[in-house]
Amino acid sequence: MSSPAADPVENRWPGERLGLPESGPRSIGRLGRRLIAIVIDWGVAYLLSWAFFPTQLGTDPFITLGIFAALQYLFLIVVNGSLGHLLVRLRVVPLAGGYLGLWRPLVRTLLLCLGIPALIWDRDQRGLHDKAAGTVLVRV
For a tag site, which of 2, 65, 129, 131 has the least CB within 10 Å? Predict the structure, then answer.
């Protein structure tokens, strides 16, 4: 049996394998902050859908999803995080460093809108949408 320090597969904390700190700035954004951020983002999209595209039943879910996707993409390109991310002090950064670009936010947003990729995580708490886009959600 090997010790935890000698076993490269074991992580002592999420993000250690990626070279990220255990806590504080640049550490992995944890589940609580992520949930609060997605609730904020979805709430803003719902309110905009209800305000500008009302239906007899409240809102059209596809219009709400479209607004959610547009806001995600726009905010990711401009400020590296959605409105919810900004409020809970998270940012989306490319794993390789540098500029997030245009394709990473697009891939991340499209997969996030499917839902399932965001619910499947690796041992570093990166969803499949982040893995496909080559991004990581970190604390500010």
Answer: 2
81-87: Cβ within 8 A, 24+ apart: 82/37, 82/41, 83/40, 83/41, 83/44, 84/36, 84/37, 84/38, 84/39, 84/40, 84/41, 84/44, 85/29, 85/37, 85/137, 87/36, 87/37, 87/40
Q: How far apart are CA 99 and CA 139, in angstroms?
A: 17
User: Which two tokens mark 44?
Assistant: 């803003």
pLDDT, tens digit (0-9, with 9 covering 90-100), for 58-102 = 899 999 999 999 999 999 999 999 999 999 999 999 998 899 999
pTM reported for the whole predicted model: 0.89
Residue whose C-alpha is closest to residue 118's, from 103, 135, 94: 135
Distance CA(75)–CA(82), nearest Å, equals 5
SS3 labels along 47-75: HHHHHHCCECCECCHHHHHHHHHHHHHHH
Run of H or E residues at 132: helix 128-133
